[in-house]
Write a structure and sequence with these properties.
- About 40% of the residues lie in helices and about 25% in strands.
- By secondary structure, the chain is an alpha+beta fold.
- The strands form 16 sheets. Strands 26, 27, 28, 29 and 30 form a 5-stranded antiparallel beta sheet that branches. Strands 46, 47, 48, 49 and 50 form a 5-stranded antiparallel beta sheet that branches.
- The chain is extended and about 165 Å long.
- The termini are far apart.
- The C terminus is likely disordered.
Length: about 1450
């Protein structure tokens, strides 16, 4: 917690009442203007602690009106009511009077951002601009003077745009950007780099106008509003201008590039009429007003939000206290306000992330007030040290923030309350004292006998003697740190530590070399002193003797710790073996690690709170689950303070905060998430985590560790005069002194609160041996040495100690140790509960049960949450009476038990007498239909109201039953009707004798239960027909059948039996059979009941043929074969052959069925064939099955069903027959597919033979398939024959001897490959093919030669005609045709005609003109006069010849 030291300014005597304050923006210099109506005014300059600068005093017979500091230089501009403007330089006191430009009272003074321009303005509307050099010296006369004729009110400079990035411009120039290159050239304007000074400013006048003045001092009117302008603000993010008028009308204007202004918002600010308004504008766009009311108003112009801040009486403010003035410090994010009762109220701004990712929420937290006397009329933050000046109408006070000093040692604690007052607590005696000093205390150090305070100038020592504090010495000393051991004081100076007496006499010097640096940090623990220097060296001294002796050499930590900037704190343990260190990094940020220097081993280790792990090489118990949980709990944190135990050298404690908050160390104590971490530190086992303890809310900060307690400073809720009040409920829970138990504010408050360590809860007053045993037990438990842990406590008999150790096991999760502790405690119930919890799979759930049995409810809750066992957490909340948490858990995480939770809560509320809320939760649990009537059964009026309100059928029924039990039958009937409980309606009507109404209800509703009850009633009254009727409506057919049989109602019996179950049908059929009448009904009922054999026997016996037909419809292969055969014979006798066949097949007499199909010429359908196809080898052998399938296929062949025959032949395994059947079908696609699937030679050949019968000449695919099939069938002789046929077709149809030659060549190859069964035939065939090939080759050669040598070709052709057996290899007609064509072309028509005649003689039966072209025939007719037949006749002759040739080929 921060304390504000208030320094009244050292004003000269006879000074007037202060009227204005002005801080320099960076330097700790305050200007104060004072005014008097008689003597005029003066201006004085004061330093940081109110020191008066005498050389800068200025006094005039006129009143000062405006004070403005230069932005960087110690130059103050002063404006007076006579129009004089003066520049005052501090501390020299040099005064520079500006030229006499103004004659009226100065209204405004404003510096530009760098101070190169000064704007002055007066009440007459005269404005002047002055130029100053870099030293703040005036340069000549004013630059310009403007007259606006109206009083000037405000002036602001517009911030300049950011400077240009030179590196970026250079890269652009190199890449060829001409505009960038021009900026670097000498032709252009000078290049502006870095931050620029804005020289454009805006000035407002009393008539509501705002004028703009550019950098060349040219002015123009920008905008105009109604009323005088009180404030001008510039919104840099929006590039907008905000204007506030005297009537508090806020207007915002956007500024265009050409100097125009456009209004975009206008709003009236709230205020109290008739009061002066203090308006503050902040850089983050907050507009803050104080109007002399009890509130402060804030407007966030950037987010368009507004706030109201009020005072809180619980913090010490008075009722009706007014807020007069405000000031905001951007560096501290703190808003200060002065009140009418002499207090400074401060609000800290807290930015919280909102649900929306890019949005944030602003909160303002009111701090403890600072008191000064009088009525605060003016306050102002200033300087880089964030000092606050306050004017209380009598004097001016300067307030500077200081962290509250506190110290604990040897059971004595001191905590600072005010700048000059301490609260002293002696825990050994319970005495509380207050120390009032005459200095501003900046440090305190206590021992059991003394209190030492200092302020960096003076050290004062006070002796503690009972309840009295006595000053034993005081001496001047500028030491920043002081430590005390016994009668010695330790102070620091450059390169040495001085050991002094309480009176300041130096007894001994501890010198440090230049390399070791200057001592900066001191700490004493027991008889050891550790010193830290500004060069990161540490030294430890032994103080147990008369003179201090070095305990170890100087240690340079910079060699061991990387990135070390400076030491923040050093602490030594009780035996001087370990030193713990906190450091700052080079960048100034606190390090996340705590470092430990082992004096004996000369080693440095650390514990990293960012990762939650110690440095590598330090041993840890092998309990991964526990330490993983601890690492998660400790990670992401930063240490802020640390202490060793006063007497136990192994025990260390550290206070940590989340990483995001370590930079704001002054305010970390206000945070909720502060953890106190305790560690064991030894040479053998390194760093061992002992406990992680959340700092209680309401406590300020950790002060010390002295087993069995942690010691904390309390937060000061408020201080009011000499009365102080810590936050309620946060005092020492174990204290019994009267001064600490009172709840009223105290003049001597106890500002230190103790909290027992985890291992000592309940053992706070134990003796030293028990304390040591518990510490050893905790230590050995931490290292996992169970044997040593139990040895250390084996002599302890106290149940309280064992219970405390069991509590310790909850933290360490040592369930095995916990069982031993529970046994020694004799707590059988807890041991049983822990044993039952062993069934839970999660270790945390087991530990949580232990925590519950020990009353550690918060720990149990955390454990259940950590393992996400929300079902157990829900049950825990219910058992502990935390019903709201139980409901929330069930609604969010444990919805499977939501209704159960609602029900249990309702039962709880009922037990507590809250029936109204219980009713609501019974409804939520959906148990209200039973539970609410039970709950309200003693309050019938409320229950009736609830019944009528809910309109629920179940509740109506319950209420009707209640009324019936009360004999209120009419009301019961009404509610039974509303509940639609027809059974109860009929039952009550029957009871009342209203049989007709009961019958009508049963008939109208058809309710089975109601009908059954009514039927029983009629049966009891011998009304059989009505009884049968209602039994039928109730679907109680067995009762109806019973009545029909007993009373001879045969007609109704048949219908009822058909509606009933098979057993009732059987009984009715037996009844009819025994009676001997209506045998058809008996057969039908036997059939319907599933007794088919009995039905058939009875049908055959009584010759019920129609019934037989119906029964046969339901016969199948599961029926009795004998019965099937008998029925089949019956149908065959009556010529029902198809039905007979079906029954024979069902009886598995397939051969008879086939014979019947053949004899009666019945078509075998595919369905019938499939039924006859036996798949089970149990019925027939494989051979018999194949035989049956072939017979089925043969029958299908006879009937022309070739596809089905193919299927059955295939199933029988006879694929050749299957192919033959398929060939008869003529389905080419299936034939090809079947051949490819079967892949048998015979089938390939059969398919190829079939395909030859098709028109393969026109379908190339068929041609390829034929060749492929013959090839696959390995029939080269057949393939050769096919090639020969192809060749003949090419010759006869197309005269294409080239293709014919290719085909014969392939045929020759095929014959060559074929196996010769009779060698002579194959050779003869090869010779014949070779002869044909030779002749065709010659003829092809002749044709080709003709184009080159016609005569030679003719000669060869004539020689070819002499070849024996020329035809059919080469047709004679084609050879003669070749000669005739040649002679016709040569014009030798006579020779051509002779050749034609010769051909005619050789082929007398053929039309030889077929071989001659039409053109040659026409030429012969013309030249030789031979007759010419018509073309039609020739074509017909040719067709006849083709037919004849086809016949010959076939």
């Amino acid at each position: 917690m921060a304390v504000y030291f208030d320094h009244p300014v050292d004003a000269p005597e006879n000074s007037d009442v202060p009227s204005q304050l002005s801080w320099h923006s960076t330097l700790p210099i305050l200007a104060v203007a004072s005014s008097s109506l008689t003597t005029g005014g003066n201006v004085d300059i004061y330093l940081q602690q109110g020191e008066y600068v005498e050389s800068c005093h200025i006094e005039r017979p006129h009143q000062p009106t405006v004070l403005r500091w230069h932005p960087s230089k110690p130059v103050l501009a002063l404006g007076w009511e006579n129009g004089e403007v003066l520049l005052l330089t501090t501390p020299s006191g040099e005064k520079t009077l500006l030229a006499n430009v103004h004659t009226a009272s100065i209204a405004l003074l404003e510096w530009s951002s760098f101070g190169s321009r000064l704007v002055t303005g007066d009440q007459a509307g005269v404005l002047a601009v002055w130029k100053l050099d870099a030293r703040g010296k005036l340069q000549g006369n004013h630059q310009v003077k403007h007259e606006y004729s109206k009083p000037l009110t405000c002036c602001i400079f517009r911030p300049a745009l950011p400077g240009m990035d030179v590196a970026k411009l250079a890269r652009a120039s190199v890449s060829g950007d001409e505009s960038a290159l021009d900026m670097f050239s000498w032709k252009g304007a000078p290049l502006k780099m870095g931050p620029q000074e804005g020289l454009v400013f805006y000035v407002s006048t009393a008539d509501g106008k705002v004028h703009s003045v550019d950098e060349h001092c040219k002015t123009n009117t920008l905008l105009s509003v109604e009323g005088s302008i009180k404030k001008l603000f510039y919104l840099q993010k929006r590039e907008a201008l905000a204007v506030v008028t005297e009537t508090l009308m806020l207007s915002q204007y956007t500024l265009g590039p050409e100097g125009e202004a456009q209004e975009f918002m206008k709003v009236k600010l709230s205020s109290k009429s008739g009061q002066d308004v203090d308006i503050v504008w902040t850089e983050n766009s907050f507009l803050i007003t104080a109007t002399g009311e009890q509130i402060i108003r804030l407007w966030d112009l950037e987010r368009d939000e507004n706030y109201i801040l009020t005072l809180d009486e619980t913090l010490g403010f008075d009722n009706g206290e007014m807020l007069n003035c405000v000031s905001y410090c951007a560096a501290k994010e703190t808003l200060a306000a002065g009140t009418s009762q002499g207090r400074i109220a401060m609000w800290k701004m807290v930015v919280q992330p909102n649900n929306i990712r890019t949005n944030t929420k602003i909160l303002w937290k009111l701090q403890t007030p600072t008191e000064i006397a009088g009525n605060v009329t003016q306050i102002q933050w200033g300087s880089s040290q964030n000092l606050l000046a306050a004017n209380n109408s009598k004097t001016v006070l300067i307030l500077c923030e200081h962290v509250m000093s506190a110290h604990f040692s040897q059971q004595v604690a001191a905590v600072q309350l005010t700048p000059t007052q301490l609260s002293i607590t002696q825990f050994s005696t319970g005495v509380h004292l207050a120390l009032q000093s005459d200095m501003h205390i900046k440090g305190v150090c206590v021992t059991k006998d003394s209190v030492t305070v200092w302020n960096h100038k003076v050290v004062a020592v006070y002796e503690l003697s009972g309840t009295v504090l006595r000053n034993t010495g005081s001496f001047p000393c500028d030491s920043q740190e002081v430590a005390v051991h016994g009668e010695n004081l330790y102070t620091v100076e450059p390169n040495r530590v001085q050991i002094r007496t309480p009176q300041g006499t130096v007894k001994q010097l501890l010198t440090f070399s230049k390399a070791e640096g200057n001592p900066m940090l001191l700490n004493v623990c027991q008889s050891y002193l550790v010193v830290g220097t500004d060069t990161a060296h540490i030294r430890v001294f032994d103080l147990s003797r008369r003179d201090a002796k070095a305990h170890c050499g100087a240690k340079n930590l910079a060699e061991q710790i990387a990135n070390l900037g400076a030491l923040r704190s050093v602490k030594c343990n009780a035996n001087g073996s370990q030193v713990c260190i906190l450091i700052s990094q080079v960048n100034g940020r606190p390090d996340h690690k705590v470092y430990f220097y082992d004096v004996e081993m000369d080693t440095v280790t650390h514990f990293d709170f960012f990762t939650g792990r110690p440095s590598s090489g330090i041993s840890q118990p092998e309990e991964s689950e526990k330490h993983q949980f601890r690492e998660t709990e400790l990670s992401g944190r930063c240490p802020v303070s640390h202490y060793w135990d006063e007497s136990e050298p192994r025990l260390f404690v550290c206070e940590t905060v989340p990483v995001s908050s370590e930079s704001s160390s002054n305010s970390y104590a206000d945070m909720v998430d502060v953890s106190v971490v305790t560690l064991f530190c030894t040479q053998e086992h390194g760093l061992l985590l002992q406990d992680c303890y959340p700092k209680p809310i309401g406590l300020q900060a950790l002060l010390a560790l002295d087993v069995p307690y942690y010691y904390f400073c309390c937060k000061l809720l408020y201080r009011k005069g000499d009365v102080f009040q810590p936050e309620p409920g946060e005092r020492d829970p174990g204290s019994t002194e009267g001064s600490s138990t009172t709840a009223a504010p105290s003049q001597f408050p106890q500002m230190v609160s103790r909290r027992a360590l985890r291992d000592f809860v309940g053992l706070e007053n134990c003796d030293k041996s028990t304390r040591d045993a518990m510490l050893n037990f905790s230590f050995f438990l931490s290292i996992g040495d169970m044997d040593e842990a139990f040895k250390s406590i084996k002599l302890i008999k106290s149940k309280a100690v064992w219970e405390n150790m069991a509590r310790m096991c909850v933290k360490t999760r040592q369930l095995d140790v916990a069982r031993v502790c529970l046994g020694n405690m004799g707590n059988a119930r807890a041991a049983k509960a822990l044993k039952e919890a062993e069934a839970e799979p999660e270790p945390e759930a087991k530990v949580a049960m232990l925590a519950i049995q020990l009353g550690m409810m918060e720990d149990a809750e955390k454990l259940y949450k950590s393992c996400q066992r929300y079902d157990l957490l829900n049950a825990f909340y219910q058992a502990s009476g935390q019903w709201q948490q139980a409901l929330e858990t069930a609604e969010i995480h444990d919805r499977i038990h939501l209704r159960t939770t609602y029900y249990n809560y309702a039962k709880y509320l009922e037990s507590m007498g809250d029936k109204t809320l219980a009713l609501a939760y019974y409804e939520k649990s959906d148990t209200h239909r039973v539970e609410v009537p039970r709950m309200l059964q003693d309050d019938t009026s409320s229950l009736e109201i609830y019944v009528n309100k809910m309109k629920d059928k179940n509740i109506y029924k319950w209420w009707a039953q209640y009324l019936e039990s009360q004999s209120d039958m009419d009301s019961a009937l009404l509610f039974y009707d509303l509940a639609q409980d027809y059974l109860s309606l009929v039952r009550v009507h029957c009871y009342m004798g209203n049989i007709q109404e009961a019958s009508q209800i049963a008939n109208d509703t058809g309710d089975r239960a109601a009908s059954y009850h009514l039927a029983r009633h009629y049966e009891g009254h011998e009304d059989i027909r009505q009884a049968v009727h209602f039994y039928t409506r109730a679907q109680a057919y067995n009762n109806a059948i019973r009545l029909c049989k007993e009373n001879g109602l045969d007609d109704q019996l048949m219908n009822l039996a058909l509606l009933s179950n098979p057993e009732d049908m059987m009984e009715a059929a037996c009844y009819y059979e025994e009676k001997g009448t209506h045998m058809d009904r008996a057969v039908s009922l036997y059939h319907k009941a599933g007794y088919v054999s009995k039905a058939l026997e009875l049908a055959f016996a009584t010759e019920q043929f129609s019934a037989l037909m119906l029964i046969a419809e339901d016969l199948n292969e599961n029926s009795d074969p004998a019965l099937l055969t008998r029925c089949s014979d019956f149908f065959m006798t009556h010529s029902q052959y198809e039905k007979s066949v079906e029954l024979l097949v069902a009886a598995k007499k397939y051969h008879q069925a086939l014979e019947l199909c053949l004899t009666q010429n019945l078509t075998i359908t595919e369905e019938l064939a499939e039924r006859m196809t036996v798949t089970d080898s149990k019925d027939l052998s494989e051979e018999a099955r194949k035989e049956l399938l072939e017979k089925i296929a043969d029958c299908c062949m006879r009937q022309g069903n070739y596809h089905l025959a193919t299927k059955k032949y295939t199933q029988a395994g006879n694929k050749p027959k299957a192919m033959r059947a398929l060939l008869k079908s003529g389905d080419t696609e299936k034939i090809v597919f079947f051949a490819n699937v079967c892949r048998q030679k015979e089938l390939f050949i059969m398919a190829a033979n079939y395909l030859q019968s098709l028109d393969w000449r026109k379908n190339p695919e068929i041609l390829k398939t034929i060749i492929g099939f013959y090839t696959k069938g390995r029939a080269p002789d057949l393939l050769a024959g096919f090639y020969e046929a192809c060749a003949q077709v090419e010759i006869d149809d197309y005269q294409n001897y080239e293709k014919a030659l290719d085909a014969l060549t392939e045929a020759f190859k095929c014959v060559s490959k074929a196996k010769d069964t009779s060698r002579g035939q194959q050779e003869a065939r090869l010779a014949d093919l070779q002869h044909k090939i030779t002749l065709i080759k010659k003829f092809v050669h002749i044709r080709r030669l003709y184009a080159e040598d016609a005569d030679e070709a003719v000669r060869l052709c004539e020689a070819l005609l002499d070849e024996p057996e020329l035809d059919p290899a080469v047709r004679i007609g084609d050879a003669f045709g070749f000669l005739v064509e040649h002679h016709c072309q040569q014009g030798n028509f006579q020779m051509a005609y002779n050749k034609l005649e010769e051909l005619q003689k050789l082929l007398p039966s053929q039309n030889v003109r077929y071989y001659i072209s039409q053109a040659s025939l026409e030429a012969l007719q013309k030249k030789m006069g031979m007759p010419m037949e018509p073309a039609e006749h020739r074509n017909s002759v040719r067709e006849e010849d083709e037919v004849e040739e086809d016949l010959n080929m076939s």
